[in-house]
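Escalation from tier 1.

The customer reports that the assembly of two entities below gives different structure tokens on two consecutive runs. Tier 1 could not reproduce it. I'm attaching the input and our single run for tier 2 to review.
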Amino acid sequence: MGRFRGRSSTVLKPKTTQEVSEILKWCNERRIGVVPQGGNTGLVGGSVPVNDEVVLSLSNLNKVRSFDPVSGILVADAGCILQSLTDYVAPHNHIMPIDLGAKGSCHIGGNVATNAGGLRLLRYGSLHGSVLGLEVVLADGRILDQLTTLRKDNTGYDLKQLFIGAEGTLGVITAVSILTPPAPQASSNVILALPSFDNVLPLYQTVKRQLSEILSAFEFIDRTAYNLAVNHGQGRALSDEDVEGAECFVLVETSGGRREHDEEKLADLLESLLSADKPLVNTGVLSQSPSQFSSIWALREGVTEAVSKEGKAYKYDISIPLSSFKRVVDDTREHLRSKGLLHDKAVKYVLGYGHVGDGNLHLNIVADAYLPEIESALEPYVYEVVAAQRGSISAEHGIGAMKTHALPYSKSAVSIDLMKKIKNTFDPNGIMNPGKVLE
Amino acid sequence: MGRFRGRSSTVLKPKTTQEVSEILKWCNERRIGVVPQGGNTGLVGGSVPVNDEVVLSLSNLNKVRSFDPVSGILVADAGCILQSLTDYVAPHNHIMPIDLGAKGSCHIGGNVATNAGGLRLLRYGSLHGSVLGLEVVLADGRILDQLTTLRKDNTGYDLKQLFIGAEGTLGVITAVSILTPPAPQASSNVILALPSFDNVLPLYQTVKRQLSEILSAFEFIDRTAYNLAVNHGQGRALSDEDVEGAECFVLVETSGGRREHDEEKLADLLESLLSADKPLVNTGVLSQSPSQFSSIWALREGVTEAVSKEGKAYKYDISIPLSSFKRVVDDTREHLRSKGLLHDKAVKYVLGYGHVGDGNLHLNIVADAYLPEIESALEPYVYEVVAAQRGSISAEHGIGAMKTHALPYSKSAVSIDLMKKIKNTFDPNGIMNPGKVLE
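Tier 1 run:
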């Protein structure tokens, strides 16, 4: 996004865990801050130095250590690129349990450090479940070896969990043991146009009941987001006639073990939706080919690209109850209008899309330029809205350098006190990624 | 099991989180130890006082706080019995993500505090993934409210994870927010007799590939365990002829969204197994009715009961590579024989069964009576075998009071040092479940 620019002049690229250990020991003794950096694809400035810290790039720690095709357990260095791991396990008919837009450059260590969510969370759960073990270098250089390849281990506190999502503030992840699921044999998808947002909830229930274990994505796109994606070249699956009167859209994906069974379930779902007395959807298009499958996904994934082409985006990645998705987008738009900021030279679009199954809304405000008055209209407004619903101000992007001030909107004083004590226990000199997560 | 007997005379049964808070504050100021107690069904003495601690029973904190049928998210007091929660969500077509033998009396809070595994882990993953939030009373009486109903929240350290599996040594869990999956529409199972243990691994790969997302259990039973269960009245599914020459048995369960699809997949699997040139199985019986489904499961679940009827059992619950399951059982038997302890008046049987998909072997040594010479022959022998394979000395049962001395076999000195620091941070006066997990 170009919103963060580091000021560090030193980048170290260790080749082994032992080298990482020596660097941290050296820095810790001298109270020198260290910023661990993976693929540098984060959205909240978590891997960017705020002062003159040393940047510790994990890019040369990039070997697969082992893979067991029976259990599907992969052990890889932190600097392995997500896509290369996907390619590595593919011949064994396994997939990585996470998938996200930045897969071509993000590192598995960074994924774990930021507890990345992405498109497969609905089906395969979070990294807190699929990461089996970690190797971490602590601030004082000690190596915490919890690189187990066991699915179950109930011997004491599950320390690795603390590093998942700590954004490098408690130690440097140098290797990851992760459970990879068997690859589905077949995937299909359908794009549905809904007359009203009110239909999303009952639709979600119907889809879950009918597709059960083969449901792998249920993505929401509001009309504004849809129009932007179409204007920028996506969305040929639905005709103009199809989308007339649609207030929002839902993309449903299935992934399963036998194509004919999956297609039968999806076709039956579509038929029952369209033939209902009071249909929840106006229309729906089922992908009939791999290229149509891709073009339906491109509509959803194209929203991000369309937003960046349209202007400067303020992106909020929030968890709120599903029933509030539309109201939060509408209220934010009205709030900006009431401040006189909804016009061509300020905010052009307010839109929402996201992962319904995870309760995760991406609220995007697309502006002509980043302006202080827009920022002060949005914050703390958005955070207050989220806090009022006991939501999360950062569902998957993390806190980084950008949202440390906003942490109290999602976490209680007791929680933050304990976090600070843990930070102090693991990193008493405060060298690990200073200025991130905790102020 | 009757191996642990508490010495405490005070049992408190608070009715609210606030009362729990007041009790802990009072005890903390006076340095009085507190043992949180759920259904008291643990196997390692985790909920039993070792001295004169106060027992804090959660049994009166037993209300469901909320359930959202759209998301499947349940919020319940810690003292709710697992079976009653299963019954609560059933009318909404949801199930609990865990299931275990003690479901009729164990508490959800105890399940979380001990990170219970059980029969559904293969399908629904561990509690580190399915628990979304916790309410915990800290040692000093402060209430840590992380009782979120969000699937995704990336704001700071995931503190709740520390309490999952901490066995009440860091605080008292008073409420749990948990994701309940949709109930499968159909379940089937099959019992397979294998000529050789060497066939278990290739069988597991074949079954995973053919059943994919509907595979919900893959349980291993060795011949000794099978014979014991049959002698105690289970196992009518297979005839004497069927089991002749079988070295071990595997129970496969499917759970899916549409009965005809699931049955077709399972029937095709069985046919391909039996018609192979070099069959991996001697024979297999597919359940044809709900009663046959139950009787096949009763064979697996009946092992525990048979063991307790046969004598006094030393139970080891270990994680090791699947390929070592048989060798560890055989080696243990030979080790006991070499010590002159394998006869009617000492060790009668050494047997193994467990969750193949989780790499979790239950190694049982059935003796005529608990004898010191058996115990000293088994420990540290079994722990050393596990450590040599980088396994876990407690896959799901925990550490409790019973295995604190054995923790170093599964955890490094750095890990244990960090655990002690965390313990000290959360509970500086050491009042929380003293003598458990850490020595």
